[in-house]
Amino acid sequence: MDGVGEWATTSVWLGEGHTLASRNGEIDFPHSLGLLYSAFTYYTGFKVNSGEYKVMGLAPYGEPAYVELILEQLFDLKDDGTFRLNMDYFHYSTGLTMTNAKFNALFGGPPRAPEEKFTQREMDLAGSIQAVTEEVVLRLARTIHRELGVDALCLAGGVALNCVANGKASAGRPDAGDLDSAGGRRRRRRARRGPRLPAPISGTASDRDAGPIGWPARIWGPGSAHSEIKRYLDSVGAVYEYLRRRAVDGIGRGDSRSRNRPSGGFRAGWNSDRARSAPAPFSAIRAVKKCNRS
Length: 294
Prior knowledge:
The protein has helices at residues 33-43, 52-58, 67-74, 101-106, 120-148, 163-169, 180-193, 226-235, 245-252, 256-259, 282-293, and strands at residues 8-16, 19-28, 75-77, 83-85. The protein is mostly helical.
């Protein structure tokens, strides 16, 4: 479940052994649960494709006051979880904004400007689209369970990163993340070597390597030793400076090492053990972005 992939926005696949087979067809663009959520992200004043988590965080402060209106006017939801959008209210398939004037009239005004204060309307809109999203995910999960007769459910795509809906659909531990190299590497190794999974490396250095309630870190992906990185940089004639952890943390704060570099001449790379299956390392990404701007 995503905004849109190549063309599909929602699809169901059955995994058996090392194979995946499509089941129950798919829902295609422009009918998309992810883009519906993004439309409300835009309308409540957040940035599309990055502010959706803020809508989810705002939802508990509101009431699901607009659920019936959404289901009556915007979103035709069937009992099995399949759906269609009323594209009369949306502009993303033909224009440069998510919603249009008809959408604005339906919900009582223009989108909230990013600098404006929140009102109860934005909170209720967030609570309503979150409730609709959870209901779609639950209906689809029940249909898959009933029709395919399977108990193990794997959710993928941007909508699956909605951890509230994810948790309600899952009897186990939600494992939402967007760093795919670790999981992909592990599964490729499994396909090559047989069904036995390699044991993950538990976080032993400190508590930060474990999950929030003691789950082991899922450090399954590829990694490179410092000596390997240095050898490669030397082989291509790169000019580089090796920074210890404390110095790298300083780059994240924009110290003189990043500010004094010539424009366009400095890039930061971050290597810390093997790639893990977890949300992206935002501190490292911020450090690289700051260096690139400098």
